[in-house]
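Here is the promised in-class demo. Please do not try to memorize the tokens; focus on the logic of going from shape to residues.
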């Protein structure tokens, strides 16, 4: 069998490795394929060594490094490594007992084609574990994606990151002042290639001053994420977002504010919006405040004074909306092009009777399954419970 066909077979097995219920069998199949002959080994190795993942919790229990990590450092496998993910370095990894820091530095040095690196340390860990490896990152010509958290980078190490150019996407979980202090200069170095900035989880250190400092470098971003920061109000946030004229994907953490809005962004290219919110009572006026807040993120569309966000979506996006997930009853009768719907209430048929393109339905109410089996839409292909 030719190499080109074997590569496609390995590619299908790679997709299965990302599905939890068949992942183990897929990995076994790839390993078996790699042992068949030289051509099969070359095709399977591209998948087997593409991503190296180490969970430090297992190392803390005195387990050896994964065999994949060790064999990936061999000369004929090293060029195949594209992604490196190290998570959960525990507090027990402190000098002089920590030899993993030297091993990791040597590994990063031997993998010149790395495109994505993730260093996630436990919050209480000794951040020096990644010191030598972080210093190696500016030497990686093809590095495009970097993911860090507060435990993996100290103030001293942050200055090294500012020298790192060529990134397209940066993810920082629980950003600290150490990283935020170098972020403005860092983003100015990345201007031209940088497309995604994601500040996740606890963003208490991100204040209006930080947003103002990085604002000159965000006009070309296509994706942005901001976690929870009580020091940033809606006006600060919306003024900052108004400078992102190329924004396509946006994730935000909402918290209730009574202060009236004085500025509203025009996100004309926005296609994906995800808003997280905590435990608020959505049965009272807070529901209306949240819906109004979300509607104000897309002012390039004509706004209507509606009492319900679902009603707004079906009225203003009926000709483009394809996927709809709802936890309560909503009127989707205008959304004739819907293809995928998820719901948890029994009032269903009246909402989707006009959806001729509907092919996927997901429900949480098991009693509806038999009714849905008789639904009869010609394009219906998937029913998930």
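The designed amino acids, position by position:
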């Amino acid at each position: 069998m030719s190499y080109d066909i074997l590569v496609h077979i390995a590619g299908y097995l790679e997709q299965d490795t990302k599905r939890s219920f068949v992942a183990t069998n897929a990995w076994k199949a790839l390993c078996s394929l790699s042992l068949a002959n030289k051509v099969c080994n070359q095709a399977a190795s591209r998948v087997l060594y593409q991503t190296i993942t180490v969970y430090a919790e297992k190392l803390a229990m005195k387990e050896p490094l994964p065999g994949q990590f060790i064999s990936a450092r061999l000369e004929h496998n090293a060029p195949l490594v594209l992604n490196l993910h190290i998570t959960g370095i525990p507090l027990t990894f402190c000098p002089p007992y920590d030899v993993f820091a030297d091993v990791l530095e040597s590994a990063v040095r031997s993998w010149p084609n790395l495109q994505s690196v993730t260093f996630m340390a436990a919050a209480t860990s000794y951040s020096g574990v990644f010191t030598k490896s972080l210093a190696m990152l500016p030497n990686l010509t093809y590095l495009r994606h970097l993911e860090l958290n507060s435990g993996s980078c100290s103030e001293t190490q942050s200055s090294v990151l500012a020298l790192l150019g060529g990134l397209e996407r940066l993810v920082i979980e629980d950003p600290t002042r150490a990283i935020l202090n170098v972020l403005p200069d860092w983003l100015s170095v990345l201007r031209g290639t940088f497309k995604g900035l994601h500040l996740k989880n606890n963003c208490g250190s991100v204040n209006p001053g930080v947003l103002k400092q990085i604002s000159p470098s965000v006009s070309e971003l296509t994706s942005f994420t901001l976690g929870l920061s009580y020091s940033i109000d809606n006006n600060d946030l919306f003024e900052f977002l108004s400078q992102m004229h190329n924004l396509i994907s946006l994730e935000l953490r909402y918290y209730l504010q009574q202060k009236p809005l004085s500025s509203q962004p025009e996100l004309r290219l926005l296609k994906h919006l995800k808003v997280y919110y905590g435990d608020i009572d959505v049965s009272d006026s807070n529901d209306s405040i949240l819906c109004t807040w979300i509607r104000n993120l897309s002012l390039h569309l004509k706004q209507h004074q509606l009492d319900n966000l679902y009603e707004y979506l079906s009225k203003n996006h009926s000709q483009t909306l394809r996927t709809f997930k709802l936890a309560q009853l909503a009127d989707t009768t205008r959304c004739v092009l819907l293809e995928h719907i998820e719901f948890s209430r029994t009032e269903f048929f009246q909402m989707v009777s006009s959806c001729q393109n509907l092919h996927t339905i997901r429900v949480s109410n098991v009693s509806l399954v038999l009714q849905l089996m008789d639904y009869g839409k010609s394009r219906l292909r998937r029913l998930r419970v």
